[in-house]
Amino acid sequence: MNIIFGANTFQNIFLDYIKSKFKYSYVYDEHFFMAKFSDDYIQKETQRKKYLNNKSQIYIYYTGLISLNPQKENAFKRNRLIEEMVILYKGKNIDFLNRISGRFLLAIWDSKHKKLILATDKMGYKTCYYFFDGEKFIFSSCLRTLAVYLDLDPVCDLNKKSLELFLELGYIPGEDTIFNSIKKLLPGCVLIYENKKIKKYKYWDIVTKETKVYPNNYYIGGLKNRLLQIIEETETKEATVFFTGGLDSCLIVDFLKKRFKKINTICGGFVSHNKSIFKASSVAAKYLSVKHYNISINIKDILKSFPWVIRCMDEPIFDLDLAAVYFILKKIRKEGIVFFSGMGCDELLEGNLKLLLKEKEELSRMGLQYLIPASNSMKSLHLTRLNTKIFSSLLIHEKLTEYLHSPKIIFPYLDEKLAKFVLNIPANLLQRENVDKYILRLMAKDLLPKEISGQKRQTVAFPSTWVRTLAIYYSNRIRKNSFLKQRLKYIEESKDYSRESKYIYLLKLAVLMVWQEGLKEEKNLFNRYKNY
User: Fold this and answer.
1) 185: nearest Cα among 114, 118, 99
2) Are 108 and 89 in contact (CB under 8 A)?
3) How far is CA 515 from each of CA 252, 253, 500, 508, rounded to the nearest angstrom?
4) Which residues contact 92 (CB under 8 A, 6 or more apart)?
């Protein structure tokens, strides 16, 4: 049995892996191998794993952050945390996974029973990609790393169905990936590899069978207490909030003020297109008495950021706003701060019902009804969004912060406990008489000024003229690409697409092209150094 665990980035694992030729890698036993990151880290890990080997023959490795409820992890408790997980695993087997929370990919090797267990966190901040051909099982937290190791071709080895899904939806839902031979483990799932067989199931489900209805104050208080708890558990000296002046981000700032003295708000907007957002965010920040910064982003910034964002992607994702996020994260890389974002609030609290309905219709049209949970209609809309687009968004945001070595981003509305609670709130408290986020507005009445709690929805829309500029910028390169030029020709000649839709489709082809180019470069780098 050959099992390899890859690092988060191509450079971290393969340059060390190739140059050292296993010199700095630690082989646990003849059945299990993991590649490590650096000499110093490997020595510490080797000592710890030897200790655990003598004690229990159970090995635990994880990437990300784990909290063992109610204990929180910090740098000094990492070894103790793993020892506690070993004890829990021995006592409760994999049922102990319900006792942990955080952002993680967890690997457990039970040497005695020759069993490998992989688990992802409950919301999907980290995931696991794996390859299994009946004999060899290989897994990694990075799809690109795995693809390079397996020598997969970014053109010939693509999954045709996944490719069509990306070009239609802008992302790849479900367990399939962009490659035929690689699968991904979904949020809250566990994979058990034993005797050359794979078993998968969900160890945690966001849906509960709650039937009892409580008074409104119960739901308002529960929502407030959970948001406060999320902020209380955040360890940082300074907080910075992605801020539009809307209800979602204003509530986050109000709760942060109860914990932190230094709070900054930033609003990233597109030059000459988002003046109203800049004004609204500045006014709201003044009401809340926090320091605010407006960051103007021009088309040149987007053109520079666009290819770098794609290089961070494990598989292609189409989201033009990511270029703006990348630009802001790169601009603000200060130690000792944590970013907060209101992403997920619209999806969970009825902020954009039309968008949820549209996505559900698209999945049905593409023959992906199995991704739409069979629950009541309102919950089904939320769960569909969480299991598809939100999952992809969380993954790429996590990759961006890793790539840039920037402070992590906290998404309070996508916390596992809060999301589970919100999905049990009665529908009439989420939207009433065309008022979206109704329960959030009820909660905000006692916390925020009327000018903020009652304001209309604020959005930062990517300018349509910039979409056209980006599309034209990449069109000539796509025409020279033998794999993509036929698709481009078909779209340009088609009468089924509007002009805007054609530009969007062209940009999806651009994302795919840049992603393929990046993977080819990584393969060339690997081949150049592997014989050193």
Assistant:
1) 118
2) yes
3) 35, 36, 23, 11
4) none
- Degrees to nearest 5, angle at CA 258 with 255 and 264: 70
DSSP state of 390: I
Report residue 404: phi and psi, to 5°: -90, -5
Strand 409-410 relative to strand 337-340: parallel, antiparallel, unpaired? parallel
Cα 401 from Cα 403, distance rounded (Å): 6
pLDDT tens-place values along the chain, 532 residues long:
333 443 333 334 333 433 343 332 222 222 223 332 233 333 344 444 444 444 557 777 777 888 876 544 444 355 667 777 777 777 667 788 888 888 888 888 887 788 888 999 988 888 889 998 888 888 888 888 888 888 899 999 999 989 988 988 888 888 899 999 999 998 889 999 888 889 998 888 776 666 678 888 999 999 999 999 888 888 777 899 999 888 889 999 999 998 888 899 999 888 777 778 888 889 899 989 999 999 999 999 999 999 999 988 889 999 888 999 999 988 887 766 889 998 888 777 765 555 555 666 666 665 655 554 554 455 555 566 566 677 778 888 888 887 777 788 999 988 888 888 887 788 778 777 777 788 888 888 888 887 776 666 666 778 889 999 999 999 999 999 888 888 888 888 887 778 888 899 999 999 999 999 999 988 888 777 666 5
Q: Phi/psi at 393 (nearest 5 deg)? A: -65, -40
Please tell us whether the domain made up of 216-297+332-343+396-453 is placed in CATH 3.40.50.620. Answer: yes
Q: Partners of 138 in the beta sheet?
A: 131
276 Cβ partners below 8 Å, 6+ apart?
Answer: none
Here the tokens at position 425 are 């709130």
**Which residues are CB-neighbours of 497 under 8 A, at least 6 positions away?**
491, 505
In the block, residue with structure tokens 């204990």: 71
